[in-house]
Structures are given as C-alpha cells and as structure tokens.
Amino acid sequence: MTYQSAGVSIEAGEQVVQRIKRAVDSTKRPEVLGSIGGFAGMFALNRAKMKDPVLVASADGVGTKLEVARQMGRYDTVGRDLVAMLVDDLACVGAEPLFMLDYVAVGSLDPARLEELVTGIAEGCRNAGIALLGGETAEHGDVMHSDDLDVAGFVLGVLERGHELGVHRVHKGDALIGFGSPGLRSNGYSLARKVLMGESGALARPAFPGATRSLGDELLLPSVIYAPALTAMRKKMGDGVRAAAHITGGGIMGNVVRIVPPTRDAVIHLDAFETPEIFFEIQRRGQVSADEMVRVFNCGLGMVVVVDADDTDTAVEVAREEGLTASVIGNIRSGSGSVVLT
C-alpha cells in the first residue's frame, strides 16, 4: 500500500505549493517574515504605531456558493469572497486587518484548481492590503467526492484600545450610509440555489429576463471588499464614524440590528439604494415574501455605516473615491432597538 493508493498524492501537494508561491508572495507586507513552506507563518507586529494595541480575529467560509463554483467549474471568484467575508467583519469593529490564513479541503487534489482558488484569494488580499501568511490544504480521498472542495479562512487585525466602533458610539440623529452590493456576495445561497437551480441547465440560461449574464456568472459575481473604504472614512472623519454592520447571514434585518442601541431605532428607506434584479428574480421564482428576503439577503446593501449627520457628504464622497456605490439610506431615531424599513 502507498499513500497514493489510499487517496492522497504527496506529489500533487508539492506541486500546489510551487504553483501558488507567486500568488502568495504578491500579498507580502513589510511585517511578513520568511515565506511559504515553513511550519508556521511569522508577522512582526509594529507596536510603535499604537499605545495599547488590541488583536482582533475572525473566521469564516464561503458557504454553498462553492456548489455553484463546482457546477460551473470556476473557482476564480470565490477566493475573493472569502477575503471579503473576513476583512469586512474586522472593519466593523474598526480594526486594521493584517494577515490571513486559509484552509482548503478537497476530495482529490487538482493543482490547477487550487492555483485558481488561491490566485483569487491573493487578489482579495492585495485589494484589502493584507498578507496571505500561510494555510493548509487537506486531501480527503476516502471522505469527500473527488470534485468536492471546501474553504475557510482566518484573519487577524489590530486596533487601538478605546477606538472600537460599535453600538456604544451610536446616537440619535446619526445618519446611515449604505454601500451597494451588485450581487448576493456569499450569503443566502442555500435558498437562492433551491429557487434558481432546480432544472437542468439552469446555470447556462440568462440570470433573469433581459440579463446579459448567465445565471452561473451572476451567482459567481465576487463580493465587493469594503474594508479599505471604511478605513479611509475613519482617517478622514475620525469619530464621525460610529459603527458598521456587514450584511452577511441574517440579511439586512439580522445585521443592522446589531448596531442599534436598545433605546433607538435604525430607519432604512428602501428606495434610497438600488436592489439588483437578481434579488427580484429570486423573490418571483420562489414566491419569497418581502420579509423573508430582507431576513436572508443583502438586497443590494453590502454594508451599513452609522456616521455623524454632519459628515454624510464626506462619507459618501470617500466611499465613492474608493470605487463604491454609496448613498444616505436612513437615520437613527428614538425607539426600541429595532430596524424599521420604509
């Protein structure tokens, strides 16, 4: 017996390391020590930048969007999704993301497929300004099907103690800024797949009537990475940035409520931002209620940021300078800790 006959290829693993080395190296920051191939990654924390640094960590995956990628035979965008899910969570507490580790489990190790995935992760890391410090690839031949793949990531960031964003900074009269999302990002895919991918060949047809993209291409649109824009807003506006909610699992309702004080409400005007047509297609085809849509999907809002009402023009301008679609979508008023949609 050999490891190869048991379902694990040492040679393929070594080939993967060589194929992804250039992509990983492209994400290096000055604080990174060494290169991939060691037992662990090293990162020198610059303590001179902060008086009392607090480390902030996050872990996440891409969810069942990977099933769309598997059926399409395309893994070039889901790596960027993974980075977005991680760094945008850190940005919500005001942290600067520093580096990332990834974990990939496969049924059979295909070096070309892994290279495609990691190249996407590296692209996301460069966009977010973080280093891809290391990771792990595991081949589970007797446990997973040959074309099965799952990926998870872990990001570490840092912030100055006392500078955390959050519900404790939110005041009555503050404004809500919405960052647009052109697609589903990485959330709600269990429902979206159930509704949209029921019949054979569904991924090849137009995403919705009049669409210029196929359903498969629409569902694989990469997530916008919002963290750099939020960092730029904090540099420009300081304490004028109060809190932020990354609209992931739980949709608009389940995430915005996390930054609403118990004696306040967040009022969101649905006509103040654009909802891409793919969300209406899901609602029509699945006869999904409006309440369920905003509990599951971002519906066109990838992140909601609470800012001082006097800083709304500056906030929108900075976000647009960072390449985002942004608008004033509501405000904070007296209430009972709820999200109110109008």
Textual characterization of the structure:
The protein has 342 residues and is α+β, with helices and mostly antiparallel strands. It has two domains: 10-160, 60s Ribosomal Protein L30, Chain: A (2-Layer Sandwich), CATH 3.30.1330; 167-341, Alpha-Beta Complex (Phosphoribosyl-aminoimidazole Synthetase, Chain A, domain 2). It has eleven helices and twelve strands. It has helices at residues 10-25, 65-72, 78-91, 111-128, 189-196, 215-219, 227-237, 251-256, 277-286, 290-296, 312-321; strands at 32-33, 42-43, 53-61, 96-106, 131-139, 149-160, 175-180, 241-246, 264-268, 301-307, 326-334, 338-341. A six-stranded mixed sheet has the order 8-10-7-11-9-12. Strands 3-6-4-5 form a four-stranded mixed sheet, with helices on one face. It has a two-stranded antiparallel ribbon with strand order 1-2. Helix 4 (111-128) links the parallel strand 4 (96-106) and strand 5 (131-139). Helix 7 (227-237) crosses helix 11 (312-321). The longest helix is centred in the middle third of the chain and has 18 residues, at 111-128. The chain starts with 9 loop residues before the first helix and ends with a strand.
